[in-house]
Amino acid sequence: MCPSIELLKSLRDNIKAMKIGLVGGGTGGHFYPLIAVAAELQANPNSSELFYFGPEPYDLKALKSANIKYVYCPAGKMRLYFSIQNFFDVFRNLIGVPLAIIKLFLIYPDVIFSKGGYTSIPILLAARFLRIPIVIHESDAVPGRANAIAQKAARYIAISYDDAAKFFPEEKTALTGIPLRKEITATCENPFALLGLSKDKPLIYITGGSSGAERINNIIIRSLDTLLPHYRIFHQTGPANIEEMRQAAQSLLGDSPDLEDYYLEGKLEASTISALLQASALVITRAGSTTLFEIASHAKPSIVIPIPEDISRDQRTNAYAYARTGAATVIEEQNLTENLLAQEISSIIGDSAKYQEMSVAAKSFYIEGSAKKIADILISIGHEHKS
To answer: Whole-model pTM above 0.70?
Structure first.
């Protein structure tokens, strides 16, 4: 008697490794937490076959290092501001959904993990159509539209801020924090030596995220002659801005020896970010949630300058949710001036009691083990789906 198709399928599924789909991109804040969870999945004795879906690989080197297969799937961005691209992106989504259904059907993952963002929409709609279980993670204090759409179909919802809990069903929502790469949270014995920096002055690490931040960059340049006599500055400007920034700094400072205390980089490796977070006395940053959790993991006080609400509705909420813990102060971009920034830096670094309180608050905000907890949930739901 020949075995049934159902029996053969059951035997095949039990032999093959679990398949897990990862989606969510467009920014490092969406992408790199996926890499952190992937590392925990690969460390599990029952290894999984991992797939990353999106209109672009974002960081192909990171995908290859994590042994994640890239699967192309178009998606259209949902902008809050007027752009002619909004018209074309409607069609990208219309094409993306049926293509996502075909690609998911051929691969048929046992579970999908989504970090949100516009790139996740077609895959999440396709997964719902194919009845593939979905786990979502919300990085921000107020949910993005992708996760708001996906919450009904999601089996499990992980959140980073207590503030976000009220937007999701209580019975399937848990506070996990943000999955961070181990290279970011790791510590080294002498971060100053790794960075090639002296300890003679407090180090300020300034980052505008992977793409940089033009407004912050310009204020820092105009503040160099005030700040550099007292602080050493390491400035991550974004790759597109670095040469312009270097020329502007040289033009402002000329032959001043203070120029040697200003370090510029476009994009940073995870190990360098970790060393900077260890070595720095203070971090000046945008309000991307992943960056805030990275800063908190190293217990560093920070000054947070959120992207204006008309461009990014989540950053301002994130900034104030984080600042309420006592770990940071917030300066609205429209209020940012050279004098205000210099005063805020001095008020934090120059007040040891305030500095210590902010450091303790930052460390208390950080939640350890997020990547492993989410990986365990994915494996559990994936096994349930396979059976």
So the answer is: yes
